[in-house]
Amino acid sequence: MLLQINSARSIGIPCTRRKGSTVLLALFLSVFLTPFSLEGQEINTEVRLALQRNYSNWRRAMISKDLRAWNSHTSRYRQTVTRNLIVSQKKDWPRSLFAVPIQPPEVELLRLIEARANGNVGRLVYYGHVDFRVSDEQPPNSIFMLYFIKESGEWKFDRTRYFNLAGNDRVEKMCKNGNFEFLNEPDFMMPEKPPETPALCPSPFYVGQIRIVSMGYETNAKFNNFHDTVVDDTAVNEVLIGGIRKGPNILKLTVKGSTRATSGERHLEVAVYVNSSEEDRPRVRVFHLDPGEKVQAEYEFTVWANAVTMQKR
């Protein structure tokens, strides 16, 4: 099950406290659906039926824990990204694939507000009470997006995005008035093409994490040959894909001003951690960058992970 969590300022996500579930949870979200026509934009019936059929098959595979069916209905890109994320945590692949504490939502009772394809990328967008079955309480109104990739002429499920509208009065009001123009805003825009499928990563020597605070900046961080992420005017904590090698690791940063920044706040900070089995130190920092106001456009560092650096920090 794959889900993408958006920045905290625009999204809330149902979550449990079950140990080890948080990162796997970051494999599954989207937006909700209903037959509807946007002003100036029509629902593509052929695309809608194909995407809904694929999501139904993918959802059934997740619930029944059917690996063969999951492989059949999931894009190659998402299969690889999911496998790399699980392996990078030294979890058992593929058994851990189905160890997710939420259930793919049903979309039949949601309102479909978009169904379209952009080349080999397809999307369904729903509005309503998106239920991940984590609580008996009625979930808040949300936007649920389902993304698909066309491979060899067949649509395959890729990922979901989930926007909790609690506290977002502007978008909530637009939805209630049947105005869905917000789908053209940067946070909701559809990608122009599918991402390139990454290489399979090895099992890491150390499980690692990277924390990036990139307020007012757009920061591209690359770690060794497997982790590649862009953080635009927000802060993230991520599992390092491919983990951390014992000894030297290469961290490259490319930084520029964010076109999304509105507050005028600017702060860049990057830290790399090794996950530890010690109760008093669940993670150990082995790298830290805080350049203050003197932010460079490019950085390249050698990050050392060994007994010496782990003891110092």
Describe this structure as you would to a colleague.
This protein has 313 residues and is an alpha+beta fold. The protein folds into 2 domains: 4-188, Nuclear Transport Factor 2, Chain: A (Roll), CATH 3.10.450; 208-312, no CATH class. Helix content is 19%, strand content 35%. The chain contains 6 helices and 11 strands. The strands form 2 sheets. Strands 6, 7, 8, 9, 10 and 11 form a 6-stranded antiparallel beta sheet that branches. Strand 2 (111-118) and strand 3 (121-129) form a beta hairpin. The model is unreliable at 1-23 and 26-41 (pLDDT under 50).
Short précis:
The protein has 6 helices and 11 strands.
Essential attributes:
six-stranded antiparallel beta sheet, Nuclear Transport Factor 2, Chain: A, five-stranded mixed beta sheet, 2 domains, disordered N terminus, 313 residues, alpha+beta
Rounded to an integer, what's the Rg over CA atoms?
20 Å
Stretches where pLDDT is under 50 for at least 5 consecutive residues are 1-23, 26-41
Going by CATH, the architecture of the largest domain would be Roll
Span of the ends, CA to CA: 36 Å
> Would you count the extended β strands for me?
11
Helix fraction, binned, reads 10-25%
Give the number of helices: 6
Produce the secondary structure layout.
Layout: E1 4-5, H1 21-25, H2 45-64, H3 67-73, H4 76-88, E2 111-118, E3 121-129, E4 141-151, E5 154-164, H5 169-176, E6 208-223, E7 227-239, E8 247-257, E9 267-278, E10 281-289, E11 298-305, H6 307-312
Helix pairs in contact: 2-3
